[in-house]
Design brief:
Elements: H1 17-43, H2 55-67, H3 71-100, H4 105-123, H5 126-132, H6 139-174, H7 179-195, H8 205-224
């Protein structure tokens, strides 16, 4: 009886799960930016006043919100964008955790502060409640709701900035991205934290813009080189 040689079969190549995570993280980040800023731009047409608005200006803004049938839908779209941003932050921290090695404390701290930032944006409903009752809202109460939302947003800069600062530190330590991207993350994070001291001014706009610029840059980097 002639024994035929065993036929060796090569195992089918499986997609790299880390590369899949990188692509999904990038896609979530870019989609989150679109879904967050499209409603923000639309809501600006309702006459949102500055942080130091008067009670009459705050009441007029919430009255316009209540009279706009699409305002509630725009808020829901922004929440969906926040889901994408949360996915991006979690995915990025997981990738940094892998690159950082043990103990991955920088990426873990970044993850905690990113979760705190997302939790605030999900749970703060001061503007939603005021806009829902804008037609019948007392100007003094409208002023309180307006300030409460703005102060909460200013407090969120600290957690938002801490996420960026520790994430940038992890990038600079591991070299997983180019160094300029790591420094951009650190600069935006530190700037957001310091902006809390002067929250009524426009100083927060620069680090806030830098934050979203590095989200876009990191997402493009992950799409181009997911490995």
């Amino acid at each position: 009886m002639v024994m035929l040689p065993a036929r060796h079969t090569e195992p089918m190549s499986q997609p790299d799960s880390w590369a899949t995570l990188a692509r999904a993280t990038a896609g979530a980040g870019l989609a989150g930016i679109v879904l967050i800023f499209a409603p923000i731009i639309a809501m600006s047409s309702l006459g949102e006043p500055a942080f130091d608005a008067t009670r009459e200006e705050a009441a007029a803004f919430f009255r316009n919100t209540a009279e706009s049938s699409w305002a509630d839908a725009a808020g829901t779209v922004a929440l969906l964008g926040l889901v994408g941003l949360t996915w991006f932050m979690v995915g990025l921290c997981l990738l940094l955790r892998r690159a950082e090695g043990d103990p991955p404390w920088r990426s873990t701290v970044a993850l905690v502060f990113g979760a705190l930032f997302a939790a605030y944006l999900f749970t703060d409903t001061s503007w939603d409640a005021a806009g829902n009752r804008g037609a019948d809202l007392d100007p003094g109460l409208a002023h309180f709701a307006f300030d409460m939302g703005n102060l909460g947003f200013a407090n969120a800069w600290v957690s938002m900035g801490s996420f960026a600062a520790f994430g940038g530190w992890a990038v600079l330590t591991t070299g997983v991205f180019r160094r300029w991207l790591g420094w951009l993350m650190v600069a935006s994070g530190v700037g957001l934290i310091l902006s809390r001291f002067v929250w009524t001014t426009n100083a927060w706009l620069l680090p806030y813009a830098l934050f979203w610029i590095w989200v876009i840059a990191a997402s493009i980097r992950l799409l181009r080189k997911p490995a």
